[in-house]
Write a structure and sequence with these properties.
By secondary structure, the protein is of the alpha+beta class. About 35% of the residues lie in helices and about 20% in strands. It is built from 16 helices and 24 strands. Keywords: Kinase, Transferase.
């Protein structure tokens, strides 16, 4: 069997597949996030323990020999470890907002734009550049004593194998030159981090590989580290042709478009993710909040997840005038623009508004944000969709209407599939990619509703422009 491990922000999963890509079993464990005054952190020991637990349970449930393991996980943030790969402090999450003032200064003095023009990555508060610079100013001791500033999956990989390395996809933000596929020392200089260069892990190109030392897997099992979750989902959803796109409706709402054109002009936003294919990138617009926005509305209104479809079907397009700008993250928004102080807005509510109106309004708002991201990323071809949001058929119908295009729905553990496909290619194992990435459904838009939502999208952009202006003042 082939095993893919996906170390998500709130859930760690391990999935087993046979050689044809058919799922054999999935194990998952939740992991916590700590929110405090703009700081969002995770306990690295808890995350690694969850990885070991899902792997132990998976190999017990499916006793077939493990042929190969692929590893993926959440990107960005800062995961400081010592020379043995052990945690030096809590990990700063990609959702963290502590560096927003520092980022604001970089936006004002041109540093932010210059970094984008060099790397194709628009920094946001939870990306490694601002976080490392903040720690250098406020917690220099933690950096002095650390051996490496890793990404999430790299921390797990080092604990499983003893190998210290990242891959080109995770390294893409914000220090990697996408043309040379090596760290750009000028970027470190611009961010005041030249003296911290030693903390950057070696970039494995192609993917770093190793053999397991334990952690719930048989000793000496071959494992590949990466790509990180956005790029892994692109592989798992069959995204291979330039112009084709993927929308990940998960905690983070991520829009990806495959491209062979490295265009570093235009508004600095999102990033170019380098892949194992030189000259082939993923233009990524990873918005800060996806299903997390819906989860907040559900918890606030007392609606259960199994009630969502019925509520969506009962409320009409436009949600009876209720409208949501879905920018709920404490660190603002990062794609398709960077606005650290932007916050969510809920308008049009009255005593006649229902829970269904609120649920539909936030789902429509997320759909408009997705359309904005996909347009900015340059979508021209087909569109696949994956992530937890695909479990709601009503939301998929709504998304197809808002986006005005068919959706190739790819369900299951798409990131884990992509991690296995990447690991197999790295190890020279031939797998049938078409079979592994076959969509489970195609959802087509209703022409009438799609026309309605074209007007709704223009209204969304107008309200967003006003909200961004207020956030700056």
């Amino acid at each position: 069997m082939y095993v893919g491990v996906d170390v998500g922000t709130s859930l760690v999963k391990a999935a087993a597949f046979d050689a044809g890509g058919r799922p054999l079993a999935v194990e998952s464990r939740p992991v916590g996030l700590s929110f405090r005054a703009g700081l969002v952190e995770q306990d690295m020991e808890e995350v690694y323990a969850a990885v070991a637990a899902v792997l132990t349970a998976l190999t017990a449930a499916v006793p077939d020999p493990v042929e190969l393991v692929g590893l993926t996980g959440q990107g960005d943030g800062v995961w400081l470890v010592d020379g043995e790969g052990m945690p030096m402090r809590a990990a700063a999450s990609w959702m963290d907002g502590r560096a927003h003032e520092l980022l604001g200064r970089w936006q004002a003095d041109g540093t932010f734009e210059e970094v984008f023009r060099r790397t194709g990555g628009a920094m946001f508060p939870g990306s490694p550049g601002p976080l490392l610079a903040w720690l250098d100013r406020h917690e220099p001791g933690s950096l002095d004593s650390a051996a490496t500033a890793l990404y999430c999956k790299d921390m797990v990989f080092e604990r499983l194998t003893g190998v210290r390395a990242t891959d080109v996809s995770d390294a893409s933000m914000p220090f990697l030159d996408p043309r040379t596929r090596t760290y750009d020392d000028r970027v470190l200089e611009l961010l005041g981090l030249t003296h911290r260069r030693r903390l950057l892990p070696p970039v494995g190109d192609p993917l770093p590989v190793g053999r397991t030392l334990g952690g719930g897997l048989p000793l000496d099992t071959p494992i590949a580290n990466g790509p990180y979750d956005l790029a892994a989902c692109a592989l798992g959803a069959g995204l291979t042709g330039p112009g084709d796109g993927l929308l990940i409706v998960g905690t983070c709402l991520a829009a990806l478009v495959a491209t062979t054109d490295l265009d570093l002009t235009g508004e600095p936003a999102g990033l170019y993710i380098s892949t194992d294919r030189p000259g082939f990138w993923l233009r990524a617009m990873p918005a800060m909040v996806g299903t997390a926005a819906l989860d907040w509305v559900l918890s606030t209104t007392g609606v259960r997840h199994d009630e969502v479809d019925a509520l969506l079907d009962a409320a009409p397009p436009g949600a009876n005038g209720v409208r949501v700008l879905p920018y709920f993250a404490p660190s603002g928004e990062r794609a398709p623009f960077v606005e650290p102080r932007l916050r969510a807005e809920l308008t049009g509510v009255c005593l006649e508004s229902t829970r269904g109106d609120l649920v539909r309004a936030v789902c429509e708002g997320i759909g408009y944000a997705a359309r904005h991201c996909l347009e900015a990323a340059g979508l021209k071809g087909s569109l696949a969709v994956c992530g937890g949001g695909t479990r709601s058929p009503a939301w998929m119908r709504l998304l197809a209407d808002v986006l005005g295009r068919p959706l190739r729905v790819v369900e299951g553990e798409v990131g884990a599939r992509g991690a296995v496909l990447a690991a197999a290619e790295r190890h020279g194992i031939a797998l049938d990619r078409a079979a592994w990435t076959e969509p489970t459904a195609v959802v087509r838009p209703d022409p009438g509703r799609a026309a309605y939502y074209t007007g709704g999208y223009e209204d969304h952009l107008s309200r967003l422009a006003s909200a961004r202006e207020r956030a700056r003042h």
